[in-house]
Write a structure and sequence with these properties.
With about 150 residues, this protein is mainly α. About 85% of the residues lie in helices and about 0% in strands. The protein has a single domain, classed as TspO/MBR protein (Ferritin), CATH 1.20.1260.100.
Length: about 150
Amino acid sequence: MVLFGHLLAVTEVMAVGGITASAATEAYQELDLPPYAPPAWLFPPAWITLYVLMAVAAWRAWRAAGFDRAQVLYVAQLLLNLAWMPLFFAADLHGLALAEIAVLWCAIAATMVLFWRRDRIAGLLMGPYLGWVGYTSALNGGIVVLN
């Protein structure tokens, strides 16, 4: 039941992000992109995979320690994740989105450490997400410079 709750939470974040990103493909293609930018079609499958890993990580950490500060931080980073898409795409505030994603990366790293202390697999499952957000940060930075 708790795993379902974690999956539902990331599904909600993904749905709101999807609504915000409905015109994102077009907006993304109109930007001057750095040479390391992936094609727009790569983002949905990457995020779906990451959200599933995040939900399983949160569930495993919850099984090990219950609802504690690790889960609170997990919710905080989900809200930061949710905030980035509207800043970047809907409001075209690329510089502010870059600052926000830096805070998000730090929150993910802290969540990963706390999850690791509760369940090593939970910590490891957050690794791809941390890496992808690091890459997205570099992409966001490149877009700020080029646009």
